[in-house]
UniProtKB/TrEMBL annotation:
Protein's name according to its UniProt entry: Sigma-70 family RNA polymerase sigma factor
UniProt keyword annotations, A-Z: DNA-binding, Sigma factor, Transcription, Transcription regulation
Source organism superkingdom: Bacteria
Signal peptide: none
Family membership noted in the UniProt record: Belongs to the sigma-70 factor family. ECF subfamily.
PANTHER family assigned: ECF RNA POLYMERASE SIGMA FACTOR SIGM, RNA POLYMERASE ECF-TYPE SIGMA FACTO
InterPro entries: RNA_pol_sigma-70-like (IPR039425), RNA_pol_sigma-70_dom (IPR014284), RNA_pol_sigma70_r2 (IPR007627), RNA_pol_sigma70_r4_t2 (IPR013249), RNA_pol_sigma_r2 (IPR013325), RNA_pol_sigma_r3/r4-like (IPR013324), WH-like_DNA-bd_sf (IPR036388)
RNA polymerase sigma-70 region domain ranges (all copies): 10-74
RNA polymerase sigma factor 70 region 4 type domain segment(s): 99-151
Cross-referenced Gene3D superfamilies: 1.10.1740.10, Winged helix-like DNA-binding domain superfamily/Winged helix DNA-binding domain
Amino acid sequence: MRDAEEFDALYAACAGRVVGHVYALTGNRAEAEDAVAEAFMRAWQRWRTVREADSPEAWVRRVASRIAVSSWRKTFNRIRAHRRAAVDQSLPGLSEDHVALLQALQRLSANERRAIVLHHLNDLSVADVAAEMQAPVGTVKTYLARGRRAMAGLLTDAHQEETSHG
């Protein structure tokens, strides 16, 4: 019974954060939810190993991220979604700033986007991001610097367009 209780506690504590992470990576809530559900299923199947990991949440987040980006179909859909401005601006609860942020994230490289999401949206330290991405700290710092610079330009451009049309 202890296994089920521990697993349920992990799910309750972090499922929403992991869905948010994968959503920020993919820009598609349904894909994010599917990937996270699959990741938790795999975590349960390997629970004795997962619960001993340094961070079971990081294990689930890493698996969910891989699931979301591994399939060629999902890659194709994401490219197509980028072309039609993947974020549906009519979704309730999404502010214009939120939509602009998601659109800017989607224009970054996959590594830059992942580093930005892990560091700024999941509040992981640079060292923790490096461990999760299996990359040197210096590389992660480069991804973060490039991602921030690109997003600053994209968000500034979006703001200038908005003020010139409004």
